[in-house]
Structures are given as C-alpha cells and as structure tokens.
Amino acid sequence: MHALPAPMEQWLLHLQAHRRYSPHTLAGYRQDLWHLVQRHPDSAPESYTESHIRHAIARMHSQGLKPRSLARALAAWRGFFQWWAPAAGLACNPVAGIRAPKAPQSLPKALSVEQAQVLLDRPGLPEPSSATDCRDQAMFEILYSSGLRLAELVSLDWRYSRHDQYESQSWLQLTEKEAIVKGKGNKTRSVPLGTKAIEATQRWLEIRHQLLPRHKAPDADSAALFLGVRGKRISPRVVQLQLNKLAELVGLPVHVHPHSLRHSFASHMLQSAQDLRAVQELLGHANISTTQIYTRLDFQHLAQAYDQAHPRANRKP
pTM for this one? Predict the structure, then answer.
C-alpha cells in the first residue's frame, strides 16, 4: 500500500469515517492520489497548481489510461482539494477547471427477456433443494426483480437488526414486499420485490440456518440475508462465480455478470413501462442522464424488431 502525504491520508480517513465510502472505492482513490504524487514527487500538495494537474493527467493519458480512468482520477483529486483547500489556505482548487477526455458511451450488456427467463427458470435442472442452490436462486431472483447493485445485494440483512455495535443498513421487509437499500452516496431507497423473488427468498430463509455456525453471538454476519458456506456474509466474488456457473448449466451463450441482471431489469422495465423517472428511482441513480443510456438499449431492441417485421425495411436481421 502506497504511503501518501498526510493531508491525503486524512482525507481518505474522513471519507471512511464520515462518508462511509466502501473499501473498494477508497482503494481506487488511494491509487489515483498516488498517481498524482508519483508525477510530482518533489512537490508538496499545497504547492500544486493547475499546471501540475494538467501535466499529470497528460502523462497518464500518454501511458494508455482510458478516459473513464482519467475521469475517476480527476474526481479523486478534485474531491481532495475541495476538502483540503480551505484548511490549507489555498486560493482555489487546482483541479476545478480541468476535464477528462470524453469517454465513449457504451451500451450495457443486458439479457433478453427470454434469456432472463431461462436463467431463472432453470429448464432441465432439478428444483433448488440444497442450501446453496436455494440461496443462489433467491439472490438471482432479487437481482433481477429489484435491479440491485452487487454490493447492495450482499449488504442485505434478512430483517432489520440492531445490537451492540451493529445496525442494519439494508434489509428485507417481506410482508411489505420490499427491501430497504442503502446505495451509493449513502442514499436509502425502497425497492419492490416481485412474487418470484419473495417465494425464492422464503424457501431460502427456511433453510438458511443450515449455513449458520452454532452458538455464535449475534453480529453483522449472523444478520446477513445471504451466507457463504462458512457462515459469513457472502462475498461479491462468490455471487459472480455462482451466477456464471448457473448460466453455463442452463446453456446461455453469453457471459452473465450480476450487473447484467441490473441492466436487464432496467431495459425490460423501460420496454414495458416507458417510465424513465420511475426506473431512475428504482435503480438509485442520482442523475437521470445515467438512466437515459437504457433508452438507447431499448431503441436497439425496437430497431431490431423493425428490421424483422416492417415490409419496407429491406434489411436482414
């Protein structure tokens, strides 16, 4: 782990303690700050100017970093100086006027409705019966039913819990057919749970105790909705591996990532409801521009249908 100047270390601690940033995000910010320090090893942070920043970002660009990586680095630097400039007596934020090269806007990889049904209906496979199979089915149904991010899924507790030093941040409310989720930016939202997701979750909760260690005091792991085979809160990597395993078993010809189910949820909702604002709320997007990318995905679906059906299209699908 790279050692950073003291003000930068203090900023990361501030984000961890007061903003509750995830370890993954903090590690990314640390790496971004290290890139800046590495470009100007003999300069103290308070001496950085806009010229220092432009030089650093140009060097990173010349080394092949993609626009998205450069944008994240600039966001980290801008956030640090915005926090630190007043205390350091800086006249301005040296990153304020600098923008990253524009990144191409790529369409998310969503499953078709038919592919999503095959994945979750498991044709040719026996009904889930073991603890891990029932757990996996509930996880994937919730991902598709509610459009959760992977981190939001693994953070879910099976009910609201508060004891000792632990209090639930995200939890199920099955009787209300919803989940309370704390997502990006510490924003809490309510997401609906569909019938299939509720049924799969209820089957899992009936045998969840099989993965719980015996005689263990209540803690963050025992409150978790989804558990690994050792009784701890399931890790994102296990969710990814299990989803890929199921996709292969049912014969899907595409790589399926947990985020694919979030993309599929959004695009299928838009195809049916055409309500961008509602989908924005359900996904927990701060800006509707983030949600609008799914309208492009929906148009792609409509264009394909046009090519196949319109008598004057004169284009082969």
Answer: 0.62
